[in-house]
Amino acid sequence: MKIRVKLFATLREGRDKILDLDLDKNNTIEDVIKQLKIDKKDIAILLKNGLDTNISDILKENDTLSIFPPVGGG
Amino acid sequence: MNLKRYEKNFNTISKTEQKLLADKKIAIIGCGGLGQYIASLLCRIGVGFLTIIDDDSFDETNLNRQLYCHTENIGKSKVLETKKQLNKINPLVTINAIPDKLTQQNGHKYIKEHDLAIDALDSAKDRIVLQDICEETNTVLISAAIGGWYGQLTIIKPGDKTLSKIYPDSEQKGIELELGNPAFTPALLASLQASEAVKYLLSKNTLSSSQILYIDLLNLDFEIVEF
């Protein structure tokens, strides 16, 4: 199944900002994060199709996953 | 009101809107990289009453980006030094400088009776406190955060609790600890906060409260994310 991953800020470094992935069924968000070699501590916000989601959620065909690192400076 | 000094605001904003701004009160919480630019912009445009809150003093590492930090005021209070400069820029604006840290205990008295609050803080933990105070005082909050080439902006209405989604773990370290904050990123995000503030006060279209604007200056990428 095909899904799209959108990465923001530092998570783009060494990766593309939009990734179209072809996954087996029943892959979770955590599986994708591992595949992309993203450290969980570098993630602040996870959105699936624009809604808050959980790392253990199972992805479905045509889902868009957006991943954001924590930005806190002022 | 002396309108000559606002002549270059017209007709981006009308004379009627200019007078409306003179009756508005904004609280800016945090007076560092973002806060000093925001205060300067809102003072110049003519928002009548600005409260600036921060207990911090200037140090040498602020020289790279903080508008009113210079080699002769290291060690001095950020809000008091900022007030001095703002008074020279626009004496028509009342500057309420509070050299204190915003807490759950003092927040209500500092934020109540303002038309708008602006988050210019530098930690997730303090931002969640500010969000709680804005809930309590029914105050809309314009929030931005920066780190390196990157920034984010959102508008939070009471009840949204957006900062709890942006910072699910308030102890999590932000990218700014590794990347620092160069001069241009706070200047840009502060400008966006100031323009959104003016639009909000003048009932013009702002970013909606279900959107975050993400800015990546390294790739010159601006994206509004719906959530």
Question: How would you describe this structure in keywords?
Answer:
heterodimer; A: 74 residues; mainly beta; Ubiquitin-like (UB roll); five-stranded mixed β-sheet; 1 helix; 9% helix; 30% strand; globular; B: 227 residues; alpha/beta; eight-stranded mixed β-sheet; 8 helices; 8 strands; 34% helix
Task: Describe the protein's topology.
The complex is a heterodimer of chains A (74) and B (227).
Chain A: E1 2-7, E2 18-22, H1 29-35, E3 45-48, E4 51-52, E5 64-68
Parallel strand pairs in A: 1-5
Antiparallel strand pairs in A: 1-2, 3-4, 3-5
Chain B: H1 15-22, E1 25-29, H2 33-45, E2 49-53, H3 78-89, E3 94-98, H4 107-111, E4 116-119, H5 124-136, E5 141-147, E6 150-156, H6 162-166, H7 176-179, H8 184-201, E7 211-216, E8 221-226
Parallel strand pairs in B: 1-2, 1-4, 2-3, 4-5
Antiparallel strand pairs in B: 5-6, 6-7, 7-8
Helix pairs in contact in B: 2-3, 2-8
In this structure, how is the largest beta sheet of chain B organized?
8 strands, mixed
Query: Can you give the helix content of chain B as a percent range?
Result: 25-40%
**Biggest sheet, spatial arrangement of strands of chain A:** 2-1-5-3-4
Structural class call of chain A reads mainly beta
Q: How much beta of chain B, percentage-wise? A: 15-25%
| Biggest β-sheet strands, sense, barrel of chain A | 5 strands, mixed
Helix content of chain A: under 10%
Query: What order do the SSEs of chain B take from the amino end to the carboxyl end, as H and E?
Result: HEHEHEHEHEEHHHEE
Radius of gyration of chain A: 12 Å
Number of strands of chain B: 8
Q: How much of the residues of chain A is beta strand, in percent?
A: 25-35%
Count of helical regions of chain B? 8
Shape of chain A: globular
Total separate domains of chain A: 1
- Which residue ranges of chain A are poorly predicted, with pLDDT under 50 across at least 5 consecutive positions? none
Termini Cα gap of chain A: 41 Å
Overall number of strands of chain A: 5
Architecture of chain A in CATH?
Roll
How many helices of chain A? 1
